[in-house]
């Protein structure tokens, strides 16, 4: 096989009716009687320029609602050999744990039947009901035997910081099944996207997702998640990349000054991050001069951390060139193929049937 | 870092041979017993109405504790152990001691005072106005009028813009004050319109607006809820500063007030370039949402925003810090020590880079004189 491995791509749920076959009678009735129409969140409003690249939209203003279209627009032009589907449908934002659980189960079954069964290039992340850790672990255990599920997905805007101990059963399950934890942009909307309150514009909210990733990384490191689960890999998805060096410099400085508060963090944060954390490529918030891109990579301090992504159908680049200018060819090769294969052990497996 | 005050002869000799510096983040602190969260040193500057209130009801913020701050600090009062006075009084509470320990040996010829425990963000807005006013009177009476190297910051009750404007107008033209001071953790992002009268008044008074880390806006300090540890709070000040800067830029504050000078204090600076790249990239796709922006977001950083150095990021190799500062612009950088706090950056060691003489002069003095309009 040749071609890149795209680690962040988004199938779109056409509507709640698509999930009905995967809900039991009680929840089907709930959807109908309570008039639940749709779970598209304000993280990616339908008509927003970022949610769907303009030339990919169909007559409904959307795209990526079926396998054929996703393959034609999102895979074929880039020669993609494998891709990981991260379905962003607001099941995590439900306040009812029960509803969150029912919708997560339905969503994962819908992904398996309507997507993974229909194109051998597709893999997926397990969507979990973040409302309840036990339910999340149950869903991981239910889906993990299907080895086309290669990752567990959480949203960066969580209810409690992701490092906190009550979330650890999720990481234990991830380690047990050999699944990375993918943290994707988006939110349960329990807290504002900024530490100073709710933004007023979509642009402000989206830009601030990067700061949310920074805080979650601090939490995961400070609470000792990587000391407790040495086999765990965390992938930050649609997080942006260029914030990482300055963030790590500050974290490392304070770790030197305050490590007695968190004595279980015995390695420098930069070393923990290089060993355990990966980031998807798009949106690549690069310096405007291509000549500075490799300097940024030097500041990141590793050529193994970036994973190729198009973020299809989100609008992150024009044309058919998702690899930023200025990356040298050998690094591009690592980003497109080697790094994803090392990150996702299940991608190397040939069998696709559970 | 902690440096023993009794063993500073080596540093003093280094200092004596080097240029004068501007320190853009010095923390004076009212001494004396705190009653209900307000130091008795401020009592002479409080009306009886508020003095009685403080005695009986104290002061509350959007955080749990009667004494102390949200997270236990790394050191008592977050201060260098050697900065406590010999009689046990609070670090930063005595001008003579501060001069002897910091201003004289480090050759600080311009020091910007940033009082932090001044009632900003108190839940009672009238009390906040009273304590901030008292703090300004205290700065003038006990600091800036006593030592010509020092300039005060006009602390304002920023959640009440009208009261803040009154306080700024009261200080306009008083050369003892160099800036208006806000804290970063506000009730809403600082670009929102409720805060605009503050910027208008600052521009009218020709004062910069400093935004120092900390505060109690009531929101969790991350998008995923409250962090558990002080290190999360401290690292997180950088995220809060990024968020408030994004808000100020995208809301159009610098379009409305093109001469506004904003100084971000103690939130780091190496992130500024990457944040600019990120904003510019998204703005290109989403600019129809923000038609009031006439320039790419990063350009406002270049013209209206300055950053203090402490706590300076420390990459390995250190040369990467110089590259980060190249990306931000050396004219944006203001040296600061954060005296007397535990994470003090010593001017002899804080920028271990090969600076050109022009860069050194800009960062350690000229940029501060420019932004604070000090001759």
Folded structure, characterized:
The complex is a heterodimer of chains A (354) and B (375). Chain A has helices spanning 16-19, 25-33, 67-75, 97-116, 133-143, 168-177, 202-223, 225-228, 244-258, 269-276, 293-300, 329-343, and strands at 5-9, 82-85, 122-127, 149-157, 181-187, 234-237, 277-280, 306-307. By secondary structure, chain A is an alpha/beta fold. Chain A is globular and about 55 Å long. Chain A is built from twelve helices and eight strands. The mean pLDDT of chain A is 96. Chain A has a single domain (5-346), classed as Metal-dependent hydrolases (TIM Barrel, Alpha-Beta Barrel). By secondary structure, chain B is α/β, with parallel strands linked by helices. Chain B contains twelve helices and ten strands. In chain B, the strands form two sheets. Chain B has an eight-stranded parallel beta sheet, with helices on both faces. The longest helix of chain B has 22 residues, at 230-251. The radius of gyration of chain B is 20 Å and the shape is globular. Chain B starts with 8 loop residues before the first helix and ends with a helix. The interface between A and B is large, with 69 and 69 residues.
